[in-house]
Amino acid sequence: MHLFSQTITDNWKSQFLNGDVIYSNGIFTVTINPDLSEDSRVMVLETTDGRVLAVLTPEMADKLDLSKGQELSELDFRQKLNEGGVTLHGADYLFYFSKTEKNVLLQENQEGTLRQLTEQDDLIFSEFESSASEQDLDDAYVELDHWAVFGSFEQNRLVCAASMYPWEEDVQIADLGVLTLTSFRGKGHARKVVRSICKYAFEQGYEPQYRCQLDNEASMFLAKAAGLTLFGKWDVISPDCTVGESQ
């Protein structure tokens, strides 16, 4: 997928193609990787170019009776997950900037009604949080102590904020969360904040990553409005699933 940077494509290849590829037909690929963490012992990635990649630990492969050489479609694999009692958490859409859109973004100037936030903005940010619902705060995961935080203001009031944190220890990708107070939505605050914080991330050598649930139409609309492009759908084993856990 040459639309996206090498950092992004290499990151997902390393997660899904490192290890022993037990089946691949060019469209569907299954890999066994002993180095997966407990939280990631089964993962599935569907990319927008039509490919589906699955990876799992040797222990999970044994429990699902998967072995090298057997014919395996995506439907077969998902059926084995179901029969083995393995539930997935529920996929996230993954959005990134294409190389072209990145270049456009880097030429933009930041608008005056928004700026980077620091720990000196604690009172302003606390007021912002108190004006949002618990559900919105949980869904957005925007925190003042994250690696980077940007906010948009209306009449000196913080009405929209976005924050980022490094996604993986050795990968130059920063995961993004954004939240706009309900009564200030639809005014373009979120788009401006997302583009500003993403420009900052690029300038620091990071690729911005935007994730949202498949049923969050407003978040998908925002991603596209901010210039991001859909990369694919990513799913991991549910944290409540005990199948294959170490005893």
TrEMBL record:
PROSITE patterns: GNAT. This is GNAT family N-acetyltransferase. It comes from the Bacteria. InterPro entries: Acyl_CoA_acyltransferase, GNAT_dom. Residues 112-247 form the N-acetyltransferase domain. It holds the Pfam family Acetyltransf_1.
